[in-house]
């Protein structure tokens, strides 16, 4: 499971030549993946 979302994205933004928009899109992608995984896990454990 990914637990480096926000601190990892701040480090990525400050260390690598990437745009802030790219970092935000990666963060939103990770959030969406986590929500989808939670929904699937909740349905499987019923």
Structure description:
By secondary structure, the chain is mostly helical. It has two helices and no strands. It has helices spanning 5-15, 20-44. The protein is elongated. It starts with a helix and ends with a helix.
Mean pLDDT rating: 83
Backbone structural class: mainly alpha
Distance between the termini: 21 Å
Largest sheet: none
What would the keywords be for this entry?
elongated, 46 residues, mainly alpha
Describe the structure concisely.
Helices cover 78% and strands 0% of the residues. The chain has 46 residues and is mainly α.
Explain the layout of strands and helices.
Layout: H1 5-15, H2 20-44
Helix pairs in contact: 1-2
């Amino acid at each position: 499971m990914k637990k480096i979302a926000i601190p990892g994205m701040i480090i990525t933004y400050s260390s690598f030549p990437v745009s802030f928009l790219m970092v935000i899109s990666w963060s939103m992608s990770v959030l969406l993946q986590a929500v989808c995984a939670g929904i699937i896990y909740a349905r499987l454990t019923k």
